[in-house]
Amino acid sequence: MSVTIAPLTAADRADWEPLYLGYCRFYAVPDTEEKAETVWGWLMDPSNPVEGLGARNGEGALVGITHFRPYHRPVAAQVGCFLDDLFVAPGARGGGVAAALIAGVTAAAKARGWSVVRWITAADNATARALYDRVATETAWVTYEIRP
């Protein structure tokens, strides 16, 4: 599938929301309108570090999204890129959309001099991991979290 990757703009709001909420449902997290409004506000606020890219198919339909942001890496004294979310519409999966979105984030990171692009995924997300194994290197790091 031929796709075009570009930053999300205010005009993308209506097409972005179903993809964002689909991402939430995929990971079984609440998919509320309020949460969508908050995240969209971050994406459209130039003072917020969270950015978004969209993938459009040949007909101009938004078929995939990703969100990313810089993060400081004190041990390396560098800034890296964290790819937070990546979602492709079910009908567009398997056509290279996810790889194109990852390449778009990587290009943005390179242009800004960021040292690395990192992301996490569920251990049982075999389909995504097959792609990630082709385009990136799995690290030895294990993720932990505390909910304060």
What does this structure look like?
It comes from Oharaeibacter diazotrophicus. Pfam families: Acetyltransf_1 (PF00583). With 148 residues, this protein is α+β, with helices and mostly antiparallel strands. It has a single domain (4-135), classed as Aminopeptidase, CATH 3.40.630. 35% of the residues lie in helices and 24% in strands. It has helices at residues 13-26, 33-44, 97-112, 126-135, and strands spanning 4-7, 51-56, 62-73, 78-88, 117-118. The radius of gyration is 15 Å and the shape is globular.
Structural class assignment? alpha+beta
Write down how many β-strands occur, each being a DSSP E stretch of 2 or more residues. Answer: 5
Mean pLDDT: 96
Judging by the overall fold, what is the CATH architecture? 3-Layer(aba) Sandwich
Regions with little confidence, pLDDT below 50 for 5+ residues = none
CATH structural fold name: Aminopeptidase
Q: What oligomeric assembly is this protein in?
A: single chain
Q: How much β-strand is present in the residues?
A: 15-25%
